[in-house]
Amino acid sequence: MLIGEVTRRSGVSARMLRHYDSLGLVRPTGRSGTGYREYSGEDIRRIFHIESLRSLGLSLREVGRALDDPDFTPSGLVDDLIRQTLDRIANETELLTRLRRIGAAEPAGWEDVLQIVALLQALGSDSAGKRQRAALSSAAEDRMPVEALVEAALNETDPNVAGALRWALARSGDEGLALLARGLEAPEAEVRKRAVQAIAAIGNDTADALLQQALTSTDIVVRRHAALALGPHGVADTIPTLIDMIVAEVNDVDAADALSALSADPASADRIASGLVSHLDSGVADSSARRRLTQALAGIPGSTASRALAELAQDEDRGVALTAAYIIGLRDARDSGGR
Questions:
Q1: What is the 8-class DSSP label of residue 256?
Q2: HTH merR-type domain: from which residue to which, for each copy (predicted)?
């Protein structure tokens, strides 16, 4: 079969067939009477084998080894090709994400594009200082794509940078809330916590509605951080979770502060005091938990809390009794000073 017919049947160009010939990959087994290359059936099969291996990403040198070296084993090479392909996909995906973010920022010219690229690079820097400056700059200049800010906020471990990112997101309004809501479903507890904190920092009606939903989450991490965010805003539904946090000694000081803020409402104050007393009397809480619950009563005004403290001052647990007596003394001094 002459080269023209081989080209038509195989789809491989005559130029490439000559290149294969020069490399020794496929040498025609014969020549016509006029000196033209003639390919046998075995030559055609080899051409198809070469094209098949090339489709997997093998170089021509690797193709030659695969076909001619009897000791060649494909497993190692295939593993290498898999790793190379995964790396290439990751790089291309990262590039695609970067391009989409630049497009979402709607740059007016190349100067805007360069500025956005610089901010994105700084946001991914190993330097916490650079990341923080990028977050602050993005908020001031309104250039950073919100998707990039959300991703950074959900993964940031440095508290100063995280605060700057939350501030930048708060300035963006509702735009990042849908993305942050997805963070509430993240497999990592720390990411879920950061999502709640970022939503709380936005502080508008839509954000508060998301946090209200989070209060009923089956995820205890989400529920607790939502309670810490909503408690100081007077949301009484946070009370059971905040009290449970004191018992479990999880952010218990913050939880007690949130209960104290909630107790500005007299109805909430009685509900909080009753909840604390219920846990104190349940017999479930250990000695240290009972002391924390007693301490939490210090920030709760009203007669219910006062009666509970008077009874606790006689408690069998000396630590609880001393804590209650000390709180009563502080309350008496405060009340006498106010007369």
A1: H
A2: 1-69
